[in-house]
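Annotated sample (chain length 200).
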Amino acid sequence: MPAFNIVISSGARLLLGLIFLSLGIEAVMSCAGAGPLSESIANPLSSSAKNVTEGVKPKVSYWHLWTDTKGVSRQARCTMTKFEMKGIGAGVSPQWQGEKTHDGATIFVTELPVGWTGDWHENPKPQWIIPLSGRWFVESMDGQRVEMGPGEVSFGGDQNSQETQGRKGHRSGAVGDEPAVLMIVQLDVPPQAATPCVFH
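Output written by the structure step:
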């Protein structure tokens, strides 16, 4: 199994930790082995202790790839701000917690080889995409191209787009001279309404 040097910002660490905690896989991740990623996922607020003690709600940014009412995919920069200070269970010290998804999910890691660019397609399901190493891009039907790397997060919700001039959904690919390693968290939920920034 290849080793990856993973650097994740505190905001992405918080989001990734909240996603895993909401899916009930905290124990799996904390037992997965030593190292910065396992430690950060098991305790996503480890570097945000100052925010907890000072009562400052976190803000976690993400890119949302969505489909408008005309079937055109677009991208919007969004921020999650709805966090509540509470314990995750009985007897657990309070921590910032955001909205949780209680539906099922599939989690996997994919690698985009150097120079790889995919054809136009929709995300198969609503899904979070978290870059672990390397850089990648997403181009929506409206022509916007966003490049992302470790510490940045994207939500793929471009289902139900309509083909226009040979474009449907988005295209994506690796950027630079190293592969892009992405963690995907696919949600078993129907696509959201045609509006960006549905996660607050």
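Annotation: The longest strand covers residues 60-67.
Annotation: Residues 136 and 174 are 4 Å apart (CA to CA).
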